[in-house]
Amino acid sequence: MTWLFCLSTLVILSTIFVTGIRYEPNWASIDSRPIPAWYDEGKLGIFIHFGVFSVPSAGFNSQVGWFWYYWKTLKLPAYVDFMKNNYRSDFTYADFAKDFTAEFFDANQWAKILNSSGADYVVFTSKHAEGFTNWPSNISFNWNSMALGPKRDIVGELMAAIRGKTKLHFGLYHCLYEWFNPLYIRDKGNNWQTRDFVTKKALPGLYEIVKTYKPDIVWSDGDYEAPDTYWNSTGFLAWLYNDSPVKDIVVTNDRWGIGANCTHGGVWTCRDRYLPGKLQAHKWVNAMTIDRQSWGFRRNADLSQYLTIEEILAIFVQTVSCGGNMLMNVGPQKDGIIAPIFEERLGQLGQWLSVNGDAIRGTRPWTTQNDTLAPTVWYTKKSNMIYAIVLNWPKTDTLRLAAPVPSTSTRVGLLGYTGEPFQYTNPSTGGINITIPPIPVNKMPCQWAWVLTFTNLQNA
User: Fold this and answer.
1) Which structural domain, as residue segments, surrounds residue 401?
2) Which pLDDT belongs to residue 141?
3) Residue 350 sits in the same domain as residue 440
4) Where are the beta strands (DSSP E) in 316-437?
5) Calpha distance 127→137 (Å, rounded)
6) What pTM did the predictor assign?
7) Which residues of the chain carry a pLDDT beneath 70?
8) What one-character-per-residue DSSP string does 102-149 give?
């Protein structure tokens, strides 16, 4: 089976939903469900990590969300010393919760900032491995955002704002395991032969968020230690696809137990910051962070540790060209503010998409992803239009590309540019040589990553 046949099959399946199918609680049946078309069309999502870990918000060459684990389980010296030097000796991780105040959290403002990115969906952390829920969970007792800290339903407020103020799809991240939950620790000690944590905490929490908030994405995580049979992952997914209130539109990922990652489930994540650099037969996602190291907000980050917009666009373009979606993470502060550095990057990305979105949204990978003569040029396709996304503006007046083969009626343009089509020649060695006209800086359509358009190519 060729990659082109695999990709064509993926596209067809993702645009046709057969009603009446009942999915069985086994991987063969679960994996046969097509990815809902809206997800593949959109390409860009915004990830948000927000929780009690946002209070210490200190990461030492590592990510903030694992602060509790690094401090108490791994006992990493930087974390031990940080707590020793700044907090009383009997301070516990639970004591951070009272300072998770979110006093400046404004769901409508978040919706505005997130929408400015030009993204198509949002995935918000409902619960991380610390176990604290950002909704008033019936099974989390006093370890949730209504009982402690904000004393608000953060998930509910954000859901209402996203759905009321934008056209963004709303998704939820949910971590299966909890490092220090006694039930989980006991099941682990029993080599997963008991399932008290799953039946009393993990699965009830998943059912609760799906029924209450009806997320368009259920992003599972924290499956690293136990098999999918412990989590009853196929049983939950069968319910989600057959009987849940989001059964026809929900998108899931692959983090459902040891052996499932990059093999089973919905969209494949494979690993954090996954960027294979070549076309994949199965729909995949690059979950990455603007902060190079951390998912949660880090007070001790410096400017060099944030991706520039040029770097973000390079990652985004490569991801889409190879058939993936990008899920780009921001970490709000404990007071509920999305820091200006994140707001700026989101706005810059949205600014770029306002000019070049045709080369991203609704596109498919072309037969070539990366040009062999110009390695910083990546391709996408929509109908008979081929897009060449040029990450570095040519230093000379000629751009030589190997992949496009022009015909006598080929036209070459630049997205957002109102001038004449670009001139080109068809060299005997193949490909195309494009003449780059002298464009005044105030006539350039955007500041970064310019998109050439090709119609009527011989090899379109």
Assistant:
1) 377-457
2) 85
3) no
4) 324-330, 377-382, 385-390, 398-401, 406-414, 424-425, 432-435
5) 10
6) 0.94
7) 1-19
8) -TT--HHHHHHHHHTTT-SEEEEEEE-TT--BSS--TTSTTSBTTTST
